[in-house]
Amino acid sequence: MRRPDPAILRLVVFLGSLAAVLTLLIVFRRIFQPLLLGLGLAYLFDPPVSWFERRGRSRTLGVVVLAAVLIVAAVGTLLFVIPAIGEQLDNLADRLPRYQQRIRELVKPLFDRVEARYPDEVGDLQQRFVDGLRENLPKLAGALGQRLQSLFGNVLDFVLFLLNLVFVPVFAFYLLVDWPKLKKGIVDLIPVPYRQVTLARVQEVDAAVASFLRGQLTIALVLAAINATGLVALGVPFGLVLGLISGLANMIPYMALVVGLAPALVLCWAEHQSWALLAGVIAVFGGAQLLEGTVLSPRILSKSVNLHPVWVLLAIIAGGSLFGFVGLLVAVPSAAAIQVFARHWLKLYKDSTIFGSPPPEPGGEGPAGASG
To answer: Cys staple from 223: which of 104, 207, 247, 265, with CB 3.0 to 4.6 Å?
Structure first.
């Protein structure tokens, strides 16, 4: 009996072990979620800690300094940004009745004209809306009640949620301290014949994903500052919150226009009813997008994988649908990694004889020869 090729066995064992680990993480994702989030934070914040280590300091001290900087930033956010957001929320709540009245006064003449021209169609549409609302509202309320009960009704689940909030930074701390050892241990598990090519691909993925994530986060923070400053300067109600949210939402293609520009235009018109201020709001978002497209992205994301917006949206939808919140976090990095491997596989295919070999000569082997 012929013995199987050791190279094939090594490849099968390696791929099988990798599939088993991924399956374990997917099946028990709720248990491993804090560890995965801590791993993601460690991956994001490894460069500053490694920079600190290269200056002759210990990694532990570098992690402590990084944690202190992040804590100071969080405390500053809580002391200055959160109160400002709370004040804008209070102001918005006080002004909402007035905004509703103004919007109703603006929309009602248009609605009356449509209703006068198409009375039967408008009445039928209103009746369908009311009937649908009556039919589905109890279902929505019941589903919402069950969801809230499942989230907060079980004391143990709530305690585990709080513990997860504590465990994530703890995991991130220890993973950051032992990051070089962790990488070396993973490399040692790769079969020796495939180690060089695997490390080459992984390093390419690491460079692409790391620069993409950190670059996108940097761009999002810059745009959040620009949008928030511009909307507050224009006197847009809730401008600080809308500016911050729209800047961070820029990590998802076109989402900044949905969660930022549209609400800002509505609130600006309800408060000021000024075409000039509406043009100013559009100029703030347009200028921010122009800066992002012509200056920030070419400079910051020049070394990252150029992901098409459609590919990013599909990755986010698939990740969120399959794995929930963790899936949303790893969707774009996974899409970048897949694109790197797909590019190399496509190159291998184009360099192969399957793609580049000439068709068989007439009279030779194959269908052409058989027909002669």
So the answer is: 247
Other Cβ atoms closer than 10 A to 191: 14
Residue 222 is assigned to a structural domain of this protein: yes
| Full DSSP string of 146-201 | HHHHHHHS-HHHHHHHHHHHHHHHHHHHHHHHTHHHHHHHHHHHS-HHHHHHHHHH
The C-alpha atoms of residue 138 and residue 142 are separated, in whole angstroms, by 6
State both tokens at 336: 């970048």
On whether residue 312 sits in a domain, the answer given is no
| Secondary structure (3-state) at 153 | coil
DSSP 8-state symbol, 11:
H
pTM of the model: 0.61
**Which structural domain, as residue segments, surrounds residue 267?**
211-302
- Is the CB of residue 269 less than 8 Å from the CB of residue 278? yes
DSSP state of 357: P
The answer to whether the CB of 236 falls within 8 A of the CB of 242 is: yes
DSSP for 64-89 reads HHHHHHHHHHHHHIIIIIHHHHHHHH
pLDDT of residue 98: 78
Please state the separation of Cα 145 from the chain's center in Å: 28
How does pLDDT run across 286-306, given as a tens digit for each residue? 998 888 888 887 777 655 556
Q: Give the C-alpha separation, 303 to 270, whole Å.
A: 44
- Indicate the number of domains in the chain: 1
